[in-house]
Design goal:
Elements (H helix, E strand, L loop, with lengths): L2 E9 L15 E5 L3 E5 L6 H8 L6 E7 L2 E2 L5 H10 L1 E4 L11 H12 L4 H10 L15 H12 L6 E5 L7 H18 L2 E6 L10 E4 L3
Parallel strand pairs: 3-8, 3-9, 6-7, 7-8
Antiparallel strand pairs: 1-2, 1-4, 4-5
């Protein structure tokens, strides 16, 4: 996947409004290899946009196209293939398995993709400051530690686009830098786009573009 086109899209919940936005009701294109920040206040639709792009929701007008194909036509098999090989996602609610360890949460993803070795995943968890928490159940980790596990898990797959919804909201500066460096290195290695939803705390990565999301 080389290009995402967001064409005249507006969430149904915002119907009847005319937002001043770089995304809603405009023509917006994200290409492979870009690092794009989408900044907005709470309630402006950041998580909604991620849900549209990841295929969780389709309650919008307009069209979203991947390489020219309207995603509203994709069936579950197509979405499963996209999520395994082309599109990775760190949701705001993280969706970790609380009873599984940090390592096990990452290995579940990697079992589906066969993208990293266990040694590589262990090294990534250590590099992001979780060397003493690798065998801790995710439910016992702090929210910042859980964010870092979710980031490592998202990197355990081939990808053309990485979506991150407020990934730095609970990271201190050192963890933020470590996460940003790891994300940038993996994205650059794969030539993937990085799309970061931001409010308040920003992921400290070099961005190609900054977009404003307003309803």
């Amino acid at each position: 996947m080389t290009k995402i086109e967001i064409d005249n899209v507006l969430p149904d919940v915002f119907a009847g409004t005319r937002p001043t936005s770089d995304v809603w009701l405009t023509g917006c294109t994200i290409t492979r290899g870009e690092h794009v920040e989408v900044a907005a206040a709470s309630g402006e639709g950041k998580s909604t946009l991620c849900a549209f792009l990841y295929g969780y929701r389709n309650d919008y007008s307009g069209s979203i196209r991947f390489d020219g194909e309207d995603i509203s036509t994709f069936d579950i098999e197509r979405w499963s293939a996209l999520r395994r090989r082309h599109l990775s996602y760190v949701p705001q609610d993280l969706r970790l398995f609380d009873k599984l360890t940090a390592l096990e949460n990452c290995m579940i993803k990697n079992t589906l993709t066969d993208h990293k070795t266990e040694r590589e995943i262990l090294d990534m968890l250590s590099a992001i400051g979780l060397q003493d928490r690798i065998d801790y159940p995710a439910g016992r980790l702090s929210i910042g530690q859980r964010q870092r596990v979710a980031i490592v898990r998202a990197l355990c797959q081939p990808m053309d686009v990485l979506l991150l919804d407020e990934p730095a909201s609970h990271l201190d500066e050192a963890s933020n830098h470590a996460a940003a460096d790891m994300i940038a290195a993996e994205a650059d290695r794969q030539g993937a786009a990085v799309v970061v939803m931001s409010v308040g705390a920003r992921l400290l990565i070099d961005y190609s573009r900054n977009l404003q999301l307003k309803k």
